[in-house]
Write a structure and sequence with these properties.
This protein is of the alpha/beta class. The chain has 16 helices and 17 strands. Strands 1, 2, 3, 4, 5, 14, 15, 16 and 17 form a nine-stranded mixed beta sheet that branches. Strands 6-7-8-9-10-11-12-13 form an eight-stranded parallel beta sheet. Helix 7 links the parallel strand 8 and strand 9. The radius of gyration is 21 Å and the shape is globular. The model has no long low-confidence stretch (mean pLDDT 97). Bound molecules: 2H-imidazol-4-ylacetic acid and zinc ion (ZN). The site of 2H-imidazol-4-ylacetic acid has 11 residues, from helix 4.
Length: 425
């Protein structure tokens, strides 16, 4: 049994396991001042005032079997959840930075065979072991920033064996690393060079060969597509996601990132779990997402890195769209594992309140990856994924920005970071 005692605040984000939070409710965190949390095995067994938590421990613990973590002056929250990453890849793309500073756009670089296609070349060349080694380092950094679950997309193989390779690496790392990974198949991330003249032929391979193979090997839960002018059209995107659905892969979509392209509307039409990016989503698209309950996964780090204006988070929250946040960790448009920095950007570049930001990175993010019954809030019966920050209250996380305030991380009931240092796993 672990007893986290005397926290200045325990932010539970409780009461939203059946549906994501929307509107004003995104600002309701359910904060316990001077709180305590008790875990047993991999599960939370008590959350309440420190006094009640102490009593719970006294009546339920056999003597000597309680580990006490003193949270005096510190903030306790659910483990952070990142619902959108492209974490399994080889190499890096820092050489694109000068090109972009000189005026080349993200699409200019992709059209010239760089961007996603240069990461694809390196990922195809890499062995499973090399990919796992590179990805493991990224996961270690995520954990150090308080992230306990991530979604991971394929999409740098762009041919059957290499898409499967990426997803197999994610599966192995899910088993061996403290962070849980939820896999998404994204063979429709770009048209590979060898199909540049016939993108429809590539879409056919994605639908007829890749999706069935991924589903048969049970390597992914979700299917995603980069629906963007110059990448995949709304018609191609719909076809891929509908094929995915037939094979049991739930739809997600990269929508309206660079131009307004009907992605938000398409997400609502096909009943996608989430639409991601949405920097240029139309007002009608936002309304349609609200009607259908499509979660908006916003990625303000990508807007920062691509030097463009971020998504209109306020319009989405006002329209009743549930909003989640993510790093978009990838080699080309957001190479950071610091979800807390993304939270800072959400606050300062999209004017989300500190409370909305925390909801977006916990329970709403859990809904975006179908895990809200197990994670995303601190409630008895849920998995013990807990972060302790060196912060007196949750607003301080945005106020003292761009530094790592993580003091402790408990994953499935096991301390993995204590006093800011990795202790096991
Ligand atoms: O590697 O550039 N937007 N996909 C869609 C990305 C960014 C990742 C990349
Ligand atoms: Zn992405």
């Amino acid at each position: 049994m672990i007893y986290i005692r005397n926290a200045s605040q325990v932010v539970t984000v409780a009461g939203a396991s059946s549906a994501p939070k929307t509107g004003d409710d995104m600002g309701q965190l359910h904060v316990i001042e001077n709180g305590g949390v008790v875990t047993e095995g991999d599960t939370i067994v008590f959350v309440g005032s420190d006094e009640e938590a102490g009593q719970f421990v006294e009546t339920h613990a056999a003597s000597g079997e309680v580990t006490i973590i003193d949270a005096a002056g510190k903030l306790v929250t659910p483990g952070l959840i990142d619902p959108h990453t492209h974490i399994v890849f080889a190499g890096s793309r820092e050489h694109e930075l000068n090109m972009r500073l000189e005026g080349a756009t993200y699409m200019d670089i992709l059209n010239a065979g760089g961007g996603i296609l240069s990461s694809t070349e390196k990922t195809r060349e890499a062995s499973e072991e090399q990919l796992a080694a590179e990805t493991r380092k990224r996961l270690d950094r995520f954990l150090a920033y308080g992230v306990t679950t991530i979604e991971a997309k394929s999409g740098y193989g762009l041919r059957l064996e290499d898409e499967l390779k990426q997803l197999r690496v994610a599966k192995v790392l899910n088993e061996e690393h403290p962070i849980d990974l939820v896999s998404t198949f994204m063979g429709a991330h770009a048209v590979p060079l060898e199909y540049k003249k016939d993108p429809d032929a590539y879409v056919k391979i994605v639908r007829e060969q890749m999706i069935p193979a991924v589903a048969r090997e049970q390597l992914a839960e979700y299917c995603d597509v980069f629906c963007e002018e110059g990448v995949f059209t709304p018609e191609q995107s719909r076809a891929v996601l509908e094929t995915g659905l037939r094979w049991g892969l739930k739809p997600k979509i990269h929508a309206d990132e660079l131009v307004s392209y009907g992605g938000a509307e398409l997400a609502a039409e096909i009943g996608a779990v989430s639409a991601e990016h949405l920097l240029n989503a139309s007002a009608e698209g936002i309304r349609a997402m609200a009607r259908q309950g499509v979660i908006a996964v916003l990625l303000p780090g990508t807007a920062f890195f691509l030097m463009t204006k971020p998504a209109n988070a306020r319009a989405m929250i006002q329209a009743g769209v549930p909003v989640a946040l993510s790093t978009d960790r990838n080699p080309g448009s957001c190479p950071t594992e610091s979800l807390p920095f993304i939270m800072n950007l959400a606050c300062f570049s999209m004017r989300m309140t500190p409370a909305e930001v925390l909801t977006a990175c916990t329970i709403n993010a859990a809904h975006a990856i179908g895990r809200a019954d197990r994670i995303g809030s601190l409630e008895a019966g849920k998995q013990a994924d807990i972060v302790m920050f060196d912060a007196p209250n949750y607003m301080y996380l945005q106020y003292h920005y761009a530094v790592n305030l993580v003091d402790a991380v408990i994953k499935k009931g096991k301390p993995v970071i204590l006093d800011g240092k990795r202790v096991q796993g």
